[in-house]
Amino acid sequence: MSWAIIATWPFALKGVEKASDIIKESGNALDAVEVVAKAVEADPDVDSVGFGGLPNIAGEVELDAAIMDGKDLSIGAVAGIKGFMHPISIARKVMEKTPHNVLIGRGAEEFAARMGFKNAVLITDKTRKIWEERISEIEKGQSPYEGHDTVGIVALDPKGDMACGTSTSGLFLKYRGRVGDSPLVGSGFYVDNTAGGAAATGMGEDIMKGCTCFYAVELMRQGYSPKDAAEEAVRRIHKRLAETKEHVGDISIVCMDNKGNWGAATNRPEFEFVFASDEVAPAVYKVTRVSGI
């Protein structure tokens, strides 16, 4: 297998299709990751990433994103950034143009402006209406909606280089400034050319408690298949949290090793993701809840 891409959720399919054309011709893994994420970020029908993402408690769309180069372990991430369409591209600029790994809030926004990124209104009429309805429900004593779906991507290019990335608008009705697992290295994402890569989606507050993606990559380094590594990573953190928590949040993960073998796992009833390679056309796949939890 000369190249491969895996990404969370069916909404990544169009992006994976675009990235497949790039990576098999003259692109690289970093470009592929960015292309997939940008396609999802620009899609107003996806209410958990980028433009059209559901807002925080104050009605603001705050975005988190990260990208990582498996060749030298370089990282770029932004958190709590507002008013820009493509946080994944800003994260890549952080990686390539600064001595830092992570920029947050106003600092990230100022950096994005210096890099030439244009301001954008991210909330839509649809998501504003949903926010207004939920705020009304909260005022009446009902619990807010808690689910959310990050786009996470892992790519392998024909040179043998790997990359991964994430992008999300975070938890709906989150507190202002809340940061989940997506921009946190080792929790929401991790990749190393010498082993493989992983990206997570679900309840960030629980995913980050197990450094889930780093653990999955280290399992692949030890010889686990991506499928077994994904399942063990999800099983381990779910079981540990279930010892003291009445409810464990959604945890799903996609994994790929440095040969292009892949796998996924979830503690949900089911989880769908997208995979493509030089041998397989882009398609949606599904796994069900991992055994033993």
UniProtKB/TrEMBL annotation:
Q: Which SUPFAM superfamilies match?
A: N-terminal nucleophile aminohydrolases (Ntn hydrolases)
Q: Enumerate the CDD domains for this protein.
A: Glycosylasparaginase
Pfam families, per the entry:
Asparaginase_2 (PF01112)
Signal peptide boundaries = none
- Site residues (Cleavage), renumbered to this chain: D149, T150
InterPro entries registered for this protein in UniProt:
Ntn_hydrolases_N, Peptidase_T2
Catalytic residues, per the record, are T150 (nucleophile)
Give an example GO cellular component term for this record: cytoplasm
Q: Where does substrate bind?
A: R178, V179, G180, D181, T201, G202, M203, G204
Keyword vocabulary terms for this entry: Hydrolase
Annotated GO molecular function terms are: hydrolase activity, acting on carbon-nitrogen (but not peptide) bonds, in linear amides
Q: What is this protein called?
A: Isoaspartyl peptidase or L-asparaginase, Ntn-hydrolase superfamily
